[in-house]
Design a protein that fits this description.
The protein is elongated and about 85 Å long. It is of the alpha+beta class. The longest helix is centred in the first third of the chain and has 39 residues. The protein has five helices and four strands, in the order H-E-H-E-H-E-E-H-H.
Length: 145
């Protein structure tokens, strides 16, 4: 009798584990299909105008979010729609990331063949000295206008 209870408990545990694993896999497959849809709608960057392009990962830390927030705020306050902000998930748009030689979170100011990489300064200052990042963005953008 005791042996039968142990076997039943083992079978129930195994069944629960299989059900849990199957449920997780079906969610993962849905995410993969959502990702492929995102890949089909690739971002196009108009290089005839000034763009501030932020390449990021799907999961972002507080500093990553601050870089985007300070950048958007600066563009809205100073340039009022005259400069494009483009946020790109580099994990979904791998070809575009490859085109700009991006392997990590990256903040670029672009126009034509000109490219200014503000990544290091952005990550150093976004949370602790946002005014410094704002000034750097302004000087970089103004040099391309």
């Amino acid at each position: 009798m005791n042996n039968l209870l142990k076997q039943s408990a083992f079978v129930l545990t195994l069944a629960a584990l299989v059900a849990f694993t199957t449920a997780c896999n079906s969610k993962a497959k849905k995410s993969d299909s959502e990702s492929s849809t995102a890949l089909q709608t690739a971002t196009v960057i108009d290089t005839s105008v000034v763009n501030v392009v932020y390449f990021h990962a799907t999961r972002r830390c507080a500093t990553c979010e601050a870089v985007e927030s300070v950048t958007k705020e600066t563009l809205a306050e100073v340039y009022k729609g005259k400069v494009n902000f483009i946020s790109i998930n580099r994990e979904h748009e791998k070809e575009l990331a490859k085109q700009y030689k991006v392997d990590w979170q990256t903040l670029l100011v672009l126009k034509g063949e000109q490219q200014i990489n503000l990544t290091n300064e952005a990550f150093l200052n976004a949370r602790t000295k946002p005014e410094k990042l704002k000034a750097l963005l302004q000087s970089s953008i103004d040099s391309m206008l």
